[in-house]
Amino acid sequence: MSRITGCFDTLKASGRKALIPYLTAGDPDKGTTLALMHALVANGADIIELGFPFTDPTSDGPVIQRAVERALAHNTSLKDVLGIVKQFRETNTETPVVLMGYLNPVECMGYQVFCDAAVDAGVDGVLIVDMPPEESHDLKVILDETVLDSIFLVAPTTSDERAREICTQSSGYVYYVSLKGVTGAGNLDIDSVKQNLARVRANTDLPVGVGFGIKDAKSARLIAEIADAVVVGSALINRIEELESGKQYSQEALQSHIGLIREMRDAMDA
After folding, report:
1. How far apart are CA 171 and CA 67, in angstroms?
2. Residues 200 and 180: beta-carbon distance below 8 Å
3. I need a surface site. Which of 27, 29, 105, 159 has the fewest CB within 10 A?
C-alpha cells in the first residue's frame, strides 16, 4: 500500500478529508521550502504537492508563475527538488509527497533516472501537468514498476469517455480541476463541481481531490463536504510571496505566516 492510499484510508476511517497544499520548491529559497513543508504538516496538511519549477508554466496563473520565477532565479533544479524531499524524509516518514510539474525537466533527466531518484528520495506520487494519459505510456510503464502513484487531471470539459480512461490510468487519487483556465483564476461554482464530481466518481473508486479556486476556509469547507481532498495552491503561494529569500525563519514564525492552512483544516474538520 502506498503512503497516499494509507493516508486516505486513515482519514476516511476518522470521517475526515485530506488537505493538500501546493508549494513551489525553491520559493523563496530551497532551505525555506524544506522548513515550509514541516510547517504545513504542523498546520494540518495531510499530503504535500511539491512543484518543480519550469521556465514555461502554461497552466499556472500569475501567482504561481512568479513563484516559479523566484525559484528559477535561485537555480532550483529537479535534482534540487528531489534533494529537498530526501531531507524532509529524514524526520518525516509519514506525510505523502507528490511531485507536480511539467514534462520537460523529467525528460531531460530521463524517465528511468527520474523514477529511481524519486523513489530513493521518498516521493510518493507524480503529477505531470502537460502529460495526458494518452501520451504517458513510456513514463507510466516505469512508474507502474515502482511504488510511485500516477496522478492525472480531470477538467470540467473532460468527456465521460475520456474521464473513464483517465481514471483507469490513475492511482493514489484523481485531481479534479474545478475551473476552466489557469491556477488562481475565477470563482468556485459549488453546484457545478458537485455535478462533475458525480461524473468522475462514476468511473473510479479512487479518492477525488479538487483544486483551483479554493482561497479561504469557507471555500475549503464547502469543497470538503463533497470531495475527498481539498487542494490549495495560489492562496498559499500568495502568503509565501511575502517571505524573504535567505532569511532564517523559525517554525513558529512560518506556521503563523501560513495560518491559512490551519484555518482551512479547522473549517474542514468542524
Report:
1. 28
2. no
3. 159
Give the integer Cα–Cα distance in Å for 209 and 177: 9
Average pLDDT, the chain: 94
Domains of the chain: 3-269 (3.20.20.70)
The x, y and z cell numbers of residue 53, run together, are 519549477
- Decide if 26 contacts 45 (C-beta within 8 A): no
Query: Could you report the per-residue pLDDT of 33-57, keeping only the tens digit for each?
Result: 999 999 999 999 999 999 999 998 8
DSSP-derived letter for residue 37 is H
Extract the C-alpha cell encoding 241.
Answer: 510571496
List the catalytic residues. Answer: 49, 60
Contact 210, 232 (CB under 8 A): no
Q: Which amino acid is at 59?
A: S
Distance, in Å, from the CA atom of 134 to the CA atom of 132, rounded to the nearest integer, reads 5
Query: What is the Cα–Cα distance from 222 to 48, expressed in whole angstroms?
Result: 21
Q: What is the mean pLDDT of residues 230-240?
A: 96
